[in-house]
Automatic annotation (TrEMBL):
Boundaries of every Purple acid phosphatase C-terminal domain copy: 167-225
UniProt xrefs under InterPro entries: Metallo-depent_PP-like, MPP_PAP, PAPs_C
Name listed for the protein in its UniProt record: Purple acid phosphatase C-terminal domain-containing protein
Length: 230
C-alpha cells in the first residue's frame, strides 16, 4: 500500500477500509507485504502507522513480509529479534478438532500465477509452482492471495495451469496503494477477471460458505466476486 501522497491509492484504500470497519463486522485486516515502502526510513514508518491508526485502533491488522521489507538493506540480517527458536520448535501441541477449519486461505507475497506478459517465464513464479503448488493442492488450499504486482487478477479454481474442480483459486490483489502496473495481459484461459484500478478485497466466511468480493475505491462498487461452499 504505502503512504499517501507518495503512493497515490493509499488514502482512498484506507478511507474505504475505515468505512467498512466502522459500519460492518470486520474482524481482521490482512496486508500481504510491501507495507509502507519506507525502505528503512523511520519517519515513513511513523507516517504509515499514523495513516492506518483509524483502522488498527479497532481491529487486528495482520501483515506479511514483502520484498520491500526483506531486502531494503541486506536481506534481513539486521533484524535484532533473531530466530524464534531451534529448528523444529513449536508453540504447542495440536489442540484437536475444535481448531479445524473448512476453508483454507494462504497469503504469500510473490505471485504463483499471473497472466501479465512480463511475468511469463519469471523464475520465482516457476519455482513457486514447482515447490509449493503440489502441497497447496494436496492439503486443499481454497484461495491463494498474493500481491507484489500492482494490479488485480483472479483465476478459476485450478491446478498446474488448468481449471479443475476443487482446485486453488489464485487472486493477485496488489492494487491497494502504490502506482499501478499497466501491463498487457496474455489472456490465459484460467484468468477469469483482471483490472487495473485502486481497490480492496473483502472475504466473509463461516464453516460452510465463503464470499469473496473485489471493490473499486472510486465508487465502492463490487466488480468481481465468487462464492465457495463446503
Amino acid at each position: 500500500m504505502g503512504v499517501a501522497p507518495a503512493q497515490p491509492g493509499a488514502k482512498s484504500t484506507v478511507d474505504r477500509v475505515r468505512a467498512q470497519v466502522s459500519t460492518n463486522h470486520i474482524t481482521c485486516i490482512l496486508h500481504i507485504g510491501d507495507i509502507s515502502y519506507a525502505r528503512g526510513i523511520g519517519v515513513l514508518w511513523n507516517a504509515f502507522m499514523t495513516q492506518i491508526d483509524p483502522i488498527t485502533s479497532h481491529v487486528p491488522y495482520m501483515v506479511g513480509i514483502g520484498n520491500h521489507e526483506y531486502d531494503h538493506i541486506t536481506g534481513g540480517d539486521k533484524d535484532p529479534s533473531g530466530a524464534l527458536g531451534p529448528e523444529g520448535s513449536n508453540y504447542g501441541n495440536d489442540s484437536g478438532d475444535e481448531c479445524a477449519v473448512s476453508m483454507l486461505i494462504v497469503g504469500p507475497h510473490r505471485p504463483m500465477y499471473s497472466s501479465i506478459v512480463r511475468n511469463v517465464g519469471d523464475p520465482i513464479k516457476d519455482m513457486l509452482q514447482k515447490s509449493l503448488e503440489p502441497m497447496f493442492y494436496q492439503y486443499h488450499v481454497d484461495i491463494n492471495l498474493f500481491t507484489h504486482i500492482h494490479s488485480y487478477e483472479r483465476s478459476c479454481p485450478m491446478y498446474q495451469g488448468q481449471c479443475v474442480d476443487n482446485g486453488i483459486t489464485h487472486a493477485l490483489i496488489g492494487m491497494a496503494g502504490h502506482n499501478l502496473d499497466f501491463d498487457t495481459y496474455t489472456g490465459a484461459k484460467w484468468s477469469v477477471y483482471h483490472d487495473q484500478q485502486f481497490d480492496y478485497t473483502q472475504i466473509s466466511v463461516n464453516r460452510t460458505h465463503l464470499h469473496y468480493s473485489y471493490h473499486r475505491n472510486v465508487d465502492d462498487a463490487v466488480v468481481d466476486h465468487f462464492d465457495l461452499t463446503k
